[in-house]
Amino acid sequence: MDPKQIEEIMDIIKEFFPENTSIAISDTNEYLYYQPSKKVDLKIKPGDPIKEGSAAHKALSYGQKISSYIEPDVFGVAYYGMSIPLMEEGEMKGAITAIFPQKPSAFLTNYITIKIDDCWYPIQHDQVIYLETQLRKTFVKTMTREGYHRLNLSDLELFLAPDSFIRCHRSYIVNIDYIDEIQPDSHSTFLLIMKDGTRIPVSQRYASYFRRSLGF
């Protein structure tokens, strides 16, 4: 990951997180960037290896966004971490981790603003059926509207509630509340029938995580 990519990522996330958020960016082995906050500082330095049990380590191990309380025995300081793998053409390149002194309750807006033609529309998260990667943007589908968000799917995933949204494919995130039926598919994968009739695949890579998350 080059410095320009890191700079672009920071420009995006500064718009969403409050000042008391520490941010860490890593490749798959070590930290590349760290910005501490006044509320919590893990004393990470660029070049430090990713510690086992940290939020970044969990996200890279599971290949999935995680939101978790991290005990103080990892860094000497307890924190609540939100970490998401950074993917490029299906290959894991690293992770971006937001570090909070405690679990955030409502630090982000509950809306996704989508563009339709030349207008923008704020959509509540709970109205979103699914999100799909399309041409480096994110296609957002609701029962009444569909349009595009400027962030790509992996960037946007960090800001979605993990209790409601789940990654099921490198190109799809679905709202669990809008899953109407889960059908078995070939090679131990699944096919989701959404309440609007859309059929969305669960890829083999995400199948085990999907089953664990939904408890079947």
UniProtKB/TrEMBL annotation:
Query: Which domain of life does the protein's organism represent?
Result: Bacteria
Task: Give the transmembrane region(s).
Answer: none
**Regions annotated as coiled coil:** none
In this chain the HTH LytTR-type domain maps to 112-216
**Protein name as it appears in the record:** LytR family transcriptional regulator
- Which InterPro entries has this protein been placed in? LytR-like (IPR046947), LytTR_DNA-bd_dom (IPR007492)
**GO MF, one annotated term:** phosphorelay response regulator activity
Q: Which organism is it from?
A: Lysinibacillus macroides
Gene3D superfamilies from the UniProt entry: 2.20.25.10, 2.40.50.40
